[in-house]
Amino acid sequence: MAQSVYFFGNGVADGTRQMKNVLGGKGANLAEMTNLGIPVPPGFTLACATCIEYLKTGTYTEELREEVTASIARLEAVTGRRFGDPASPLLVSVRSGGPVSMPGMMETILNLGLNDATVAGLASQSGNPRFAYDSYRRFLQMYGDVVLGVPASEFEHLLTAKRLTTGADTDADLDATSLRALIEEYKTLVRNRTGSDFPLDPRDQLWGAIEAVWKSWMLKKAVDYRRVNHIDESLGTAVNIVAMVFGNMGDDSGTGVAFTRDPSTGERRFYGEFLVNAQGEDVVAGIRTPLHIEEMVDRLPAAYRELLKVQDTLERHFRDMQDLEFTVERGTLYLLQTRTGKRTAASAIRIACDMVAEGLIDRAEAVRRVNPAQLDQLLHPIIDPGARATPIATGLPASPGAASGIAVFDPDVAEQRAARGEAVILVREETTPEDFHGMVAARAVLTTRGGMTSHAAVVARGMGKCAVVGCKDVVVDAQKRLFSVGDLVIGEGSWITLDGGSGRVFSGDLPTIPSDVVRVTSGQLAASQAPLYQSFASLLGWADDVRRLRVRANADTPRDARVARGFGAEGIGLCRTEHMFFEGDRIHAMREMIVARDERGRRRALAKLQPMQRADFEAIFEAMNGFPVNIRLLDPPLHEFLPHGGEEGKMLARQLQLTRTELNRIVEGLRETNPMLGHRGCRLGITYPEITEMQGRAIFEAAVRAKRRNIDVQVEIMIPLVAAAREFDHQRAILEECYRQVVATMGYEIEYQIGTMIELPRAALTAREIAATAQFFSFGTNDLTQTTMGLSRDDAGRFLPAYVDRGIFPDDPFQVLDTIGVGRLISMAVEDGRAIRASLKTGICGEHGGDPRSVAFCNDVGLDYVSCSPFRVPIARLAAAQAALAGGN
Amino acid sequence: MAQSVYFFGNGVADGTRQMKNVLGGKGANLAEMTNLGIPVPPGFTLACATCIEYLKTGTYTEELREEVTASIARLEAVTGRRFGDPASPLLVSVRSGGPVSMPGMMETILNLGLNDATVAGLASQSGNPRFAYDSYRRFLQMYGDVVLGVPASEFEHLLTAKRLTTGADTDADLDATSLRALIEEYKTLVRNRTGSDFPLDPRDQLWGAIEAVWKSWMLKKAVDYRRVNHIDESLGTAVNIVAMVFGNMGDDSGTGVAFTRDPSTGERRFYGEFLVNAQGEDVVAGIRTPLHIEEMVDRLPAAYRELLKVQDTLERHFRDMQDLEFTVERGTLYLLQTRTGKRTAASAIRIACDMVAEGLIDRAEAVRRVNPAQLDQLLHPIIDPGARATPIATGLPASPGAASGIAVFDPDVAEQRAARGEAVILVREETTPEDFHGMVAARAVLTTRGGMTSHAAVVARGMGKCAVVGCKDVVVDAQKRLFSVGDLVIGEGSWITLDGGSGRVFSGDLPTIPSDVVRVTSGQLAASQAPLYQSFASLLGWADDVRRLRVRANADTPRDARVARGFGAEGIGLCRTEHMFFEGDRIHAMREMIVARDERGRRRALAKLQPMQRADFEAIFEAMNGFPVNIRLLDPPLHEFLPHGGEEGKMLARQLQLTRTELNRIVEGLRETNPMLGHRGCRLGITYPEITEMQGRAIFEAAVRAKRRNIDVQVEIMIPLVAAAREFDHQRAILEECYRQVVATMGYEIEYQIGTMIELPRAALTAREIAATAQFFSFGTNDLTQTTMGLSRDDAGRFLPAYVDRGIFPDDPFQVLDTIGVGRLISMAVEDGRAIRASLKTGICGEHGGDPRSVAFCNDVGLDYVSCSPFRVPIARLAAAQAALAGGN
Fold this sequence. Notes:
Radius of gyration of chain A: 33 Å
Largest sheet of chain A: 8 strands, mixed
Largest interface: A-B, 48 and 48 residues
Oligomer: homodimer
Structural class of chain A: alpha/beta
Helix content of chain A: 40-55%
Strand content of chain A: 15-25%
């Protein structure tokens, strides 16, 4: 039979840090510290398996009871105190602690072992009867609530009543006598509620507390938390029983928390706070203001010297920044807990790099240490943490960063006022491609509908621009040019501030802090002046050394392409040509094309667009010199380019020399019930081959022009929304004919590849047929997720958040790739496609390309590259490296 | 080297009927008839392989030339005539003929061998110089066009000019002299156009014709036809060269076509038409009215007796009804072709049954003989073929049958006027579930938008009601209550007639013929009085004996369920509960539920619906006594139940005691960008568990009530739109709780199964997870096709027809299951699901369940059943039998 109870004390422990699965994180580290000779109060840990056994059988074995009894005896021997001894009582704390840190479990019970007899011992030991009775009162209250199930509110009622009858302002004003009376009232309450007396035997108290910890593993909040976070239910929790030490035994005592390095900046300095003559809960309660840790040198000098040694030992031992809890009892230091400290992205990067320089860890370990998702923090401005303001509403944090500006409700107004130099924030119910110019002009975007992958969210992330979406409490009245939140009304021109990292919306112009990394990347700051950037660059360089997966960016304009290169993108994985049609005069030519009555009319309009497209492509090829550029042919349904009524419709009709009725009929005729599944993608190119011809010629001409200028052009042309190989072949034939014509006219040959976006389940299912002629597959995981799951990202807001909350979906599938559904299609398509064409290039270009877990999947399934928003390129680079280090593919 | 030329003549042929792939259908049957001793003019066939060889190399071999030369010599010997002999010229016909009958190939060239010298021989042989020169003129014209590429219109110009200069009214009035002059003009035309003289050597003529046949294999129309009909391009066509016989050599000559049984009724009688003193093309030209075949007994008695013997021999030999072409030359009968005759459904069934009775074929063969799709003809009334009318417009033939009625443009009006006993046809731009009561009231439905699987089409087919949809030329003005087609305006109350089998729309009240089969099935006619029904029932009985696949029906009401049983449905595969919510008061309660502010309000409204649902279910269980009934929980998005403005909106607001603004806000809040991918299916049941509870209780209570009445209830409850196993489990838990409550209250236990509709790719991809708890999978192939292909059936009309025409999709995937895409998902899911649960029941319940090719796929992939509209049940039964006979699964 396996050991169930692990003792630690007097420099020797049964456990080690390797035994997290047996002892939980807290227990394993208490054992480890003990073994290291670090002062830890003695105690023992009941293994996690005892919890599972108890939950299975509803009881515990005689063997376990004996092991616990023996451990208590050992504890009594080590401490020289005894359970229930009125003269020198042994008091313990009881705490849960699973292998994985988990909120929602049972809280700490302190001072277990107190009863009517031992409280006197505590009073004489501490020399402070009030403290002893207050401890007893708190113990009764906590134990009564957590273990005996008496509602906490009822104890609070009695406490409040006592304050009122004694005239005490606060609990601290209750004297020992009042507390003793209160203790009797508490015991009566427990008797009335439970039908039994409060257990006064410390052993009974202990077993009650142990069972309560075990049962807390199955509390609803714990079960829910595990389900959402994929924590194995069969792990169970350990129970830690530790001899009490008291930081509140006088001015030679104290308690505190500390970090071995600065968790905010990563600076290598001991960082923390402490309180003299206090217990742990006093720090948390926030009644007294804690002191900076350096001040310990004056107040508790010996303990401080000891603590400095201990923190150094711990960091060197664990080779990572530690978060410590300690107590000083009458000059003697005790460590109560150590664990890996949470930190900001800046801190994580700096610590990783510093530790490499210090020889504590190697580069691979440094790469593993930083959470890729956190890198986002380094790239976007943030609201100055010093600014004090209360948000007026909170939406979804769609695109990080912070921005202030005046609220405007119309893209044209946004453009006009931005042109006048005003900072604007575009506020819409939801955005459409028509709003694009307004989004370009705006500093940030706020919408009231749509989710994390709505148009506003995707486009804003693509531009690295702050966005808060789906902010339901905000009601927009675009007609009246205002929005309201409850009674608060904010009109056009009023200042608001958005925090895209938290989804918060503020009234007014809050100060923001720009990101050093971005300033260096965009050439506004010298790298030498930005130590954080240097760490960032080192770390990503090490990541690049180990990763297999290439990282590209989704970029639609030459400007985006340059930003992407700055972040280390190795090419463009998705250049959406339609965004080019919304700028300036282009939208006019595009609309002329759409409303044309016949092919001749369409060709006339397309001829106007061609030179603009060509110029864009040439500039993009230049920005991506030497790297591949993947250009997707026109994809969205045509109605997205037309206004849907109103003033703009009237103007358009005039421009196009149509009557309003004619224009309305055209708009109406293009209306679709399910535009997502409608006339778009290559279906447009097949219905109107002249569109594909125009785009094909613009691409090839731009490539030839660039090549003439000695630019290393690597063109990939992507045919969207293919469901059948014959669609692909139809469009490919048109493009190849364009190429022949361009070569014949311009006399230069270039290399190019033609492939397809796999964004429909059928394309993945028929990968063999398609790979016969397609040279690459780019998985468009946004649409592939929508079709595979039958989930419109524009409409899912009404139920998807609840699905994720309840664990029906483990994650939002538009943020984290659904590996068992969508992912299965991807791996089938890769396998089938490569069976036909060994050289098939594969990548993804959906939003998932910037999500670390999804990047890991792409690595493991053998894709060649991922492509994501420029601002997520660093995240993808790091995630790809971590996936490679984890041994996938 | 394989033989390339196959001779037939004098009772001996090189080929046989088994050699269709070598000789084509025509050539093989000419050889077969020769071997049977049936009089066939001698000739020879160039094997199909010669065509492929020629197309590959652009030329033909010396060996082939020698073989053809030898065959001509044999033909000369057998006929006693010689190529180019002015006294006794050998003339031949040249015809293409591939292994599969295929329009668009080269037409027949008759009288090849004529030139300036041999025309005289023909004149003296026929004793009719005008005939000889007219034949020569026709030969020049046909050969010039087909072989030499001179436009047919230019010959026609010269012919017209000749009529005008000679004062001839018709071509037949041109005398021999004029024809001789015209012949010279034709030759000059050919010389000018081609730069060479018209070939006068019969051997040159022959090779020219042969090459023209070969080349015609690659004509665009032939290529397109093959692509669309999946005919293998590598087959090639044979060339048949047959000695001419002349039915126009006097009153002892003639020509005709005949069927061995009546192709319309199947009656066993020799049936056909003939003309005395005529050639085949005269029959086709329709200038003279042909005589009934029986009249041959007086006009050509010996030949007729011979023909009767021949047709009997042929039918017994081929064991199927034959379609014959014959010519009588001076009293001697010649068969020019025999092939399996095309026939109506009624005829096909009668012939199959009769032939079994006659011992010609066995039952399995009879089952194979009838095209399942044709059975539709037997179930729907048709427009009386005697009625003469011109359609005013043509749409898609969405649901067969014919119906006349007054046009109405509003479902309420339809209901009101139908209640007054008027026959109404509902005319809408498109229908929605709101129109349901109007469709129920109407005799037929006409829509201007939507495709073969639009709401109107699906619902109408489900009800076995005539529908023409997507009739683009019809412009509906619902406000003015009229529709127009060009200048024609048809207002409310005007009579129109629809032919749902052809998509034609007529003005006026055309007479229709009801179907005997339907009258028997519905008990309006005794089976003994309907011989066709008896054959129909026998054939389907034999089909039932051999099929493995069960056939169920999609039925939403007790009435539908009874109709389905009448057609032999073995249960209900899909009972859509939402249709029940549109009748009478129910829609009001449903709307009350939707607009309710909280769960309490929803429960109040649901409580009103529950007894109605329960009563429906009980009646359905009764109608399906002993057969399974699969009930799908609420599926469509809630906005489908609300009016979208107008008068109805105003009324509704009043009924629900809401302001218009409040109602509009609710309707607006439910609006979805892509409702197909929105808040529907089990997503509703998860958001509003009380809906699932109400339905679950109604189902179980109905089942218990029915069981108490000794009805054998087999309940299956289907959870729709599942994407993840956890959704299914969530809903299943609610249903199981309902069951426990119902059993506790009512004290009766019943058997039931809970399963899911697999209609999202992800459900198929995660079949293992879902099958862990689901007891059946029903593939909803309509939605599964939409999501797998990313194709909205409501919107696809703008490009899908062109896709099918051009062969980009082999078929409309909403009509014929896409086996390589959607089908792959189905077979994966079946395999994965059964790996987890061997007893998993599987079926399909989309529109494809009534499509013969899709039924064959379902059989082959091992499904347990298909479910289709009641009126397609016979089709599915027969198709399932044919699939079983074909050896699949």
